[in-house]
Amino acid sequence: MKKPALRWLTHVFALKKFKFALLIIAALLLSVHKADASELNVMVNESVMVTELSRSELRQIFTGQRQYWDNGTKITVFVLQDRDELHKQFCRNILQMFPYQLSRLWDQITYSGQGVTPVRVTSYQALIDALENTPGAIGYVERTDIVKLRRVEVNL
Asked: Which range scores top for mean pLDDT: 16-20, 29-33, 88-92?
């Protein structure tokens, strides 16, 4: 028979096992999530002559702080809806922020009159079409075999 004074020890050990199991599950989920990041590609319209961008430059572009390419062409940013999984992955893995943080920054820029928000498209195909048909456009896709787009190397 267990002594009542020591009964709390069984609860502590059970709690430690539970926390350890949660830690293992979280590690597995994070490692799977990072594997998806390799499928993301930042793409620009073929009119843009940029071949690589740093994470800092991408954040400036996608938050509206940088609005023109080096040659003076207006940057048009295209993104998927906030609830889209590809958009969430792009925000978390490439920009290292949450989609709601990005939306808040866009709202601040719009309401202060300092810029315009990116164009939100409703589907993946609409995103590809917009990137292909808009000079100066930038966005993100899963595939790299799109003829009228140029892949940009991201220096993380």
From this structure: 88-92
